[in-house]
Structures are given as C-alpha cells and as structure tokens.
Amino acid sequence: MRLRSVVTSFLAAGLLAGGGWTQALAHDAHRHGAAGGDPAVPAPETPKRKVPLRLDENEQRRYFTDTALLDQDGRPVRFYTDVMKGKIVLISFIYTNCTDICPLLMHNLSDVSESLGDRFGKDVFFVSLSVDPEVDTPEELKKYAERYNARAGWTFLTGDKKDVDAVVARFGEFKEDFEDHSMMFVLGDVKNARWSKIRGDLPPDAVTPRILDLVQRRGGL
Description:
By secondary structure, this protein is an alpha+beta fold. It is about 30% helix and about 20% strand. The chain is built from seven helices and nine strands. The strands form two sheets. A seven-stranded mixed beta sheet has the order 4-3-7-6-5-8-9, with helices on both faces. The longest helix is centred in the middle third of the chain and has 15 residues, at about 100-115. It is globular, with a radius of gyration of 21 Å.
C-alpha cells in the first residue's frame, strides 16, 4: 500500500475526510433587541465562523496522537501536546547504530540548528524519532545527541516499538525494515498546518531558507 505524505493527509484531505470544522462565535442567542425594539424579538444571530478542520487543535491531536513516548532525558512526553503543539518543527527519523544515512542527516541537522542562531529552540524545534526503539533507550539517545552537539530545542524520542511505529506512520515514513528508514525531513508549522518534506541530504543552505520561510509567514522575521 503506497504511503501517503503528510501533505496529502493534512492539506489535500483536510486532516482525513470530514471537510471544514464549524465553530460558533461566543454570542448569546437570546439577547434582547436593540433599545426601543421589541424585547420579545431576539437579536439576529451572528454568522458562524468556519474553521478549517486541519487548524483545529483537537483534530490535530487526534491525527498525530498523544502517544506516550520518552525523550533523551528519560522524561515521559505526550507526542502532540508536549512535543509538537503550536510549534514549527523539523522531524527526522534516525537510529543510533546507523552507519549509512544517519551520520549525514545528523551533521546536516546540527549545521542547520547552528545556522538558525537564537531562533533555534525559540521559533524552531527539531524532533528526531528513533526507528529502532528496542535498542535506542533514552540513555543511548542522550549520548547520540551529545555526539552531534544537539542544542536545547532538539528532542530525541523513543518508547515502546508499537507506539513509536504508530507515530512514524502518521508521517507516512514507517518501514517494516527499520534499516531502510527514510532520509526525508518533515517540516511543519503545526499551528497553521503547513507541511512539506525535504531531502535530508540537501546542504544546510538549502534547508535553512525553507524553515525561515515558515518563521517569516508567522511574522517572526
């Protein structure tokens, strides 16, 4: 079965089927009419404002899940609420014993984090999901993070294999053989549901502008 990208799942399909999400503005439907009018006649209702389903926080949480995982410090985190909610994130898929793709990905990520300066950890956050969680304990991820000078704002995640696999699958990046894992980065402005994928072997000067574009569109530059 062909894996769907996050762009397809989120933007084209609107966070799965269902169309837009409607939210009523907070108005009292039983207010009296204007002064001098008939108090028995209710004021006209304010038109309802339609909010796209993909922008609804509860729907985002449902899609990405609040799966319980562990970070590199061994702290339990809820995936959506604690790691993603409202942020601009660059997500990668790695494992610590990888000697092929991962070193290149990690060096690129480290360079990109440096190029972002003080925006990193404030406006932009990195999330690296281990695709080999049975080996990659928090302790192993901690050592791995230190090897690549991971700065504050870069979260490494592991947990029960079934839980990690389920989260990775939400981004369309699950592989039966974890050694065949993706070299793609998933870039997203979670709050505004803007998602794209970037090749992880691109040089940092090709990745950083894509991130800064999302920051600028938020009015952060």
